[in-house]
Design a protein that fits this description.
Blueprint (H helix, E strand, L loop, with lengths): L1 H16 L12 E5 L18 E9 L5 E8 L7 E3 L20 E8 L1 H5 L5 E2 L1 H11 L6 E6 L9 H4 L17 E2 L1 H9 L3 E6 L13 H8 L4 E3 L13 E6 L7 E11 L1
Helix pairs in contact: 5-6
């Protein structure tokens, strides 16, 4: 599987460098899936975080007779589809720009708990969920990017159903309800498996009612980053997809807006 990843990474870099008009690139014969929600005024953010704002700097015809547009944007690092860098919850850990590029590319293992989470918005993805996946597909691939499908992405961008509350401010945090990763599973992934990153289709890898954010702390202490508010995970197969997750490269950042995509071979 490591050899497969090295080949896939080489093919990806070659494909990105190839002319757009080519139809025989290394990634032809499959399809790309966008796993990112658009950034807009509708994007969902933590109740205490600054939301996405876009203002027009200039839009229209110039004195030179040609059209020109430019916009100013402002946003928290942590909102919309975004990266959590390990330093977000671990003082001596990688910041956004320090995460090795190879850690943001890899084979996906997609864990589907949507049936369980549908009846429990506080569902914790457990070690047993991983073990059930492994009974069907074998152990998690070495260097896998683990993506969790809780079925939440289809609720975006309705804050009340997606996050449990549409309220804003510090008092709203207590009303958050959405699935997350059990700290016991985080420990299992760190100690028993070798993964590159985790991603989930909810606002946080810790569930909405968490107050200690232990899943963040366990994974990030091991320099395993997280991808949050991931879209369209339900379109990926359990195995075989290749993920590219490239955040804005913020020096010293604790996270940042993320464009995450996946390639599925035919």
């Amino acid at each position: 599987m490591r050899h497969l990843f090295e080949i896939s990474t080489s093919l990806l870099l070659a494909a990105l460098a190839a002319p757009v008009i080519a139809d025989n690139t290394p990634f032809s014969g499959g399809q790309w899936i966008d796993l990112s929600h658009e950034f807009s005024e509708d994007s969902l953010y933590w109740p205490t975080a600054q939301r996405f704002e876009k203002a027009t700097a200039f839009e229209g015809m110039t004195e030179g007779g040609y059209f020109y547009s430019s916009y100013d944007i402002s946003t928290s690092e942590h909102g919309g589809t975004h990266l959590d860098a390990p330093v977000h919850f671990a003082e001596v850990a990688n910041s956004t720009e320090q995460i090795p590029l190879e850690q943001l590319l890899g084979i996906a293992a997609v864990i589907d708990v949507s049936d369980k989470a549908a009846n429990n918005r506080d569902y914790l993805v457990s070690v047993s969920d991983i073990q059930a996946w492994e009974r069907k597909h074998g152990n998690l691939p070495n260097g896998a990017i683990v993506l969790i499908n809780t079925g939440s992405a289809k609720l975006w961008p309705d804050a009340a159903t997606y996050m449990g509350t549409a309220e804003r401010g510090s008092e709203a945090v207590a009303n958050l309800h959405f699935p997350g990763i059990d700290p016991e599973l985080a420990t299992f992934l760190v100690e028993e498996r070798n993964i590159k990153a985790v991603g989930i289709d909810t606002p946080s890898i810790d569930y909405g009612q968490s107050t200690d954010f232990l899943t963040h702390r366990i994974l990030f202490a091991a320099n395993i980053p997280g991808f949050e508010n991931v879209a369209a995970v339900d379109k990926l197969p359990a195995t075989g997809a290749f993920v590219v997750a490239l955040p804005m490269k913020i020096r010293g950042g604790s996270g940042g807006p993320l464009r995450i995509i996946s390639w599925i071979p035919d």
